[in-house]
Amino acid sequence: MKAAVLAVFLVPIAVAAEIPPAERRSGYDFMSRETRAMQDDEVTGPAVLSLLDGEALWGKLGCASCHGDAKASMRGVATRYPKVMDGKLVNLEQQVRHKAPQLAYESRDLLSLTAYVARQSKGMPIDVQPVQPQLDAGKAFFFRRQGQLDLACSQCHDDNWGKKLAGNSIPQAHPTGYPIYRLEWQNMGSLARRFRNCLTGIRAQQYAPGAPELVELELYLMWRARGMKLESPAVRP
Amino acid sequence: MARVVVNVPAEAKKGEVIEIRTLAGHPMETGFRRTQLGELIPRDIIRTLVCTYNGVEIFRADLHPAIAANPLITFNTVATESGTLEFRWTGDNGYSATQSATIKVV
Q1: For chain A, what percentages of helix, strand and coil (3-state, to nearest 5) are there?
Q2: How large is the ipTM?
Q3: Which residues of B touch A41 (CB under 8 A)?
Q4: Domain locations in chain A?
Q5: Record: contact B23-A53, CB cut-off 8 A
Q6: Is B66's Cβ below 8 Å from some Cβ in A?
Q7: Could you tell me the domains of chain B?
Q8: What is the pTM of this model?
């Protein structure tokens, strides 16, 4: 009897492990056929509006005066973020803001410009550097139980991916398509916004926009998804 | 701000059924939602989309609350002659957007 009870408690601990590279799947693979069609539509898909805004901003804000044609100069750039710039780990949004700090986090303009930059790397493999100690800090965040529900990111996204949570598929949490057009939001949003969603779900402490903790977590997730193809800007349910 | 996109085949055979896709950037605020302070957010939606083919109306849609933001409207028509398709969206708060596309019928 005692052994049976012990076995029940041991099982969840035994499966806690990282996803083997061959079993990694993008959130795209968990979506319905209709939602995939929205992402695949490069002419009238919902993220197209944001790309057009981003292209206009690229010219209007003077990005082109240093970087020239984004289609050439920004190719592959998004695959390498977060990375260390001037001694600080920054994600793509923060780097896009470096000469345009008036663009607020989560604002329509910043999301559009980031989506436009990220679009130039679509289909290229994620290629971030394992910056220490930030990578370990992000990994510790991912495996740390937190919030009133006392859950770690890994308990859903490593141990239970592919199962259902409130009717929705649990994806593997590979940030392959940010910024995304999310149907639930009816709008574009960043990975930081997605983190806020999960943190709300487990009733955990929220972080300020651009907080280093979230950038470290982003670095770990991108490292975890290294080699997977970028889909930005993706559509998610 | 009023960004719209249409997708019409550049060329079609006479009598062929063609698909037309339209996308309009719009929040489609329903008028039923409230702010955190309890104030009603006023309705702000697109009311109509009208498409004319060489001046003749071929498609009209009335939009209502609860249609998603950035509505994608797709419809079919028969390619009869070369010319221009004009699209006009109108809505609350003086919203108006137009777009046109040309088609060559062979």
Answers
A1: 50, 10, 45
A2: 0.87
A3: 21
A4: 25-236
A5: no
A6: no
A7: 4-105 (2.60.40.10)
A8: 0.89
